[in-house]
Amino acid sequence: MAKQYDIIIRLLMVGDSGVGKTCMLCRFADDDISSTHVSTIGIDFKIKTLTIDGKKIRIQIWDTAGQERYETITKQYYRRAQGIVLVYDMKNEESFKNIQKWMKYISDFAPEDVELILVANKSDAYNSERKVSKEHGEMFAKEHRIPFYETSAYMDMNINEAFIMLARIVMKRHKKEIDKQMEHIRLFCREDSDAHIIEKQGKDNNGCCVLM
Amino acid sequence: CVEGILVQDWVRSSRLLALIDCEEDKALFIYTCNKTPVICADDITLEAALPIKGDFICNIESESSMALPGADVPVRITTNETDVLFELPFGSKTSHFFSQIKQAIGNFLQQTSQGRPLSFQWVERYRLCIEESQQSGTNDLFGFDKFQPASTAQPHTVEKTPPPAQQDPDDLAFEDNFADLRVSQIDSGSEGPPGLSPGMRESQGSSYGSRESFTTSSTEENLVDVGSGSVTGVMKTMGSAVRPVGVRDGIVKLHMSKRESEFTVLKPFRIFIGTWNVNGKSCAEDLGPWLACDAEPPDIYAVGFQELDLSKEAFLFNDSPREEEWLRGVYKALHPRANYKKIKLIRLVGMMLIVFAKHELASYITDVAAETVGTGIMGKMGNKGGVGVRLVFHNTTFVFINSHLAAHVEEYERRNQDYNDICSRMLFKDFGSPLHISQHDAIFWLGDLNYRISELSADEVKGFIRKDMLRDVYEYDQLNRQMRIQKAFIGFTEGEINFLPTYKYDSGTDSWDSSEKNRAPAWCDRILYRGESIRQLKYRGHMALKISDHKPVSSIFDVQVKTIDEKRYKKVYEDVIRQLDRLENEFLPQVSLSKLEFVFSNVMYKEEQQQSLSVTNSGQVPVQFEFINKLDENKYCKPWLEAEPSMCFIMPGDKVEVKFIVLVDKMSASSLNAGEKLEDILILHLDGGKDFFISISGNYIPSSFGASIEALVRMHGPIREIPIELLFQMESDPSNSQQVEPFQAFDIPKEVWMLVDHLFRNGTKVAHLFDQGGLHKNFFVDHACIHLNLHRFIAGSIHSVAEALLEFIAALREPVIPYVYYQKCLDCSNNFVLCKQVLSQIPRSHRNVFKYLTAFARELLLYKEESKLHEKTLATLLGELFLRPPPGKEVLQVPPNRRQAAIQQIARKKASFVYNFIVNEYDE
Ligand SMILES: Nc1nc2c(ncn2[C@@H]2O[C@H](COP(=O)(O)OP(=O)(O)OP(=O)(O)O)[C@@H](O)[C@H]2O)c(=O)[nH]1
Ligand SMILES: [Mg+2]
Prior knowledge:
The complex is a heterodimer of chains A (212) and B (924). Chain A is of the alpha/beta class and 212 residues long. Chain A is 37% helix and 21% strand. Classes of the chains: A alpha/beta (212), B alpha+beta (924). Chains A and B meet through strand 2, strand 3, helix 7 and helix 8 of A and strand 2, helix 4, helix 13, strand 32 and strand 33 of B. The complex binds guanosine-5'-triphosphate and magnesium ion. Magnesium ion is lined by residues 21-22, 39-40, 63 of chain A.
């Protein structure tokens, strides 16, 4: 009988409606963006299992409705997030300006030790379509000392990197707890026989993304 | 009972919490789930039994309490010995459970305060059982070692309740075989599961824990013995949305092995197999000519010996100095052109098997295990039998068996038997389910198998050999024959034998046995193999070694080993994980909704409107949905809205209609009159899944019902003709006496005047004026008249006009006696002088209404005979209407047992306040 253990990280995605949160999540979790697409009206989540630095982690990502009229309700979901992805659309200046507003909600409603990353989505856009320069995004991120990524859900650019980065810094923040539990798992649960292979891979896997 | 998740920092594991009661006292039982979903009693193990007494505290974690709607509720349970945190699934199930626990705590306090302390003896017995079963581990409750299903735990029995009217899947109660314990079930509320019939109740203490006590009760038809493993019901799947990793590991492995060919590459490796019966001799010879006679060094060696030690000590105590000696001898003689590492050595009496691998390959060898099987004396002793080593090399599984089978020419059937015994008894443990020899990719069987040459005499054999006719001798070889008729070594292959029989020589020579027995030469020592990708390169005897009466045999193989292409492995692994994740995401609860926005237009006071939403379970699992509260709100929707049903269970493919009912009544009319919008967003939460937001909006037609006296007296025309902004302004600041309109304010609202005037003219002599509600339809007609300021009431029922008056007064935004005077009025209710004083302080328009209505009451009482009205009745009626407690003070802060009395007292005070004014003439 397999032991039941679980290390879960809860991430949340916020940002204006239409910036591509749902597409990013579908790309990350299912590697697929459905062609028929509707604005999210509610809160949805997906699960993804990852091996990060040799640790098997389950990530639960909550996708929120970006429409303004739901803000009062979505704010209540910030409470248990350990990491939040702030998304704007580089083709839409307004959505970048609104990042301020989302940050405000986060500081009001999310836990104090929540980790953040800033994501500019739709990097597949033509130069002529771009309204927010990379520098602007970078500057904002630097000011708030959070990692910054330009992604494209369409082209599958930087999506994994962004999520994994957030998962990583959340893990780093909670390293003590995680290590303690990992130790328990090692001591009391027999390692599956292919574990050493995975671990070996974790080691030569450092080309993925480097922290700040 | 309720399923929850035990939280240990970051590790969550599922637990089943059950509130168990035994007559008066209750206890919380915590079960570990050995399997999810929990289906039968074997799936759970009792982990802790916490009596609900003084030290029992159960609280929703304050820090994150009422966290997000839909998220699991963190509940901390503390006793003197325990402090644990659970996450319980969000929803009414949990809140019911929670309230039951609170009740139990309350019950305990009450019992003790009445001097009837509860003993909890029955719980103690459970606790003893748990302790016994946990003694092996540390004593830290909820430690990880407790995850092991404790084998000594009590057998449990599941009782299936007869299917209730409602289709809840959870109607499953755990009934222990202490027959008098009952589980209070979370969703069957007061009904509870059916108890056992009295005749079946065991007296406490007798035969506790015994299964016999249970069989008597199994006569009751709805009891099912789970000991036999029958499944008695479907338990809800995990409340938590995330299934633990551990459960998935097995599945991941399975998928990986199915796709093995995608990430493995076949690469040949050279294997050396050697076997020698050394006849108890010590290692006094160089083994090089046997072990290192090839040019290429092999990658892996498996070297087996028989009769390594013929001493009594070796036989009796399996202890031999020869082991070390021969190991050293072998090690020294391994191929000089490579470095070898010992992987495993196993010995049973005289049978020894050593496996070596090249140093640089050792790290690719995993899951090494060794076993022995004795088939000697009494079929058990180690003088005969086999020893085996299994291992995984890259991704290919290997097993090497070294055996020494029964001796003597005629005993070939015994040898077959030994072979079969070894096959069935050699089990490599520690790898999930025990592995048989046959469950390996490459199998090598070596040893002194002891098969001889039948039918030929010693001299005939020697004659053939002299003429180099080995093939002819082989025809008479017992092993050859037994294999051909499939009596032993089925599936194995043996290479062609081109070497002389290895037995029996005079020790130290190459000459055949010269003893009196004159044994016929035989190929006792053999090497067989089984597996798809094995190629035999050499199979030979080694005449150069002379110390034994046997000659050693060796064979070289090339084995195509499945090596892992790390890159491809990673890709497949990630792919498998992704597929499983996707599957898991697909198996989350899913529904499709017919509509997400509902607009109700022209909503009017007390006029119900309905729209319906169809919820279809479009997912693959049963779904339970529920409308949940928003943060800081105590109902899932605004007071003017209702969803029917507000919670429901849907099977995949099924559809449920939810009705949204909008009805504005006196509770909500005033705030809507004051400009609050008819708008709400409902959260439809799927248990263990996503949330939907459903928007409800509409416009409300303002009504004089729910307006304030201040605004009403300033409205000369019908309310609907007043510009809406002006109305909102008047309503949002009713005390602002500044004239918004050029008119003089009325003394009392014209609606009150109209209604009372009508009643005064037509109803003073009507019996039971306020007792009978008018017909509903009439009420609405009258209602419209009021709005339109019509002076005639069409429908004839005077009763409905009376009802309209009461409703109108009750709906006033602020009652006739303004909230701030509420308490004062109650306090002075028995003193008319003081009452008058208070009344003189309230705003004029309110006082006018009060005076007007009490005067009307006095008028009615003049016709007591006809109207059948009584002062006290009227006083009570008007008291309730005039005196409403301020918002937020509706609930009395008194202990529950005194609540009823307190309510009655207040009602009396209200009545007596009004009574003063209807029995006494009153003027300012
Ligand atoms: N060019 C481009 N378009 C994208 C990309 N990602 C999403 N979109 C488009 O942006 C639109 C909005 O995407 P969604 O994922 O629904 O946006 P959202 O942030 O979830 O919006 P809400 O659910 O309303 O909060 C869709 O039409 C997508 O096709 C991208 O990487 N590049
Ligand atoms: Mg979306």
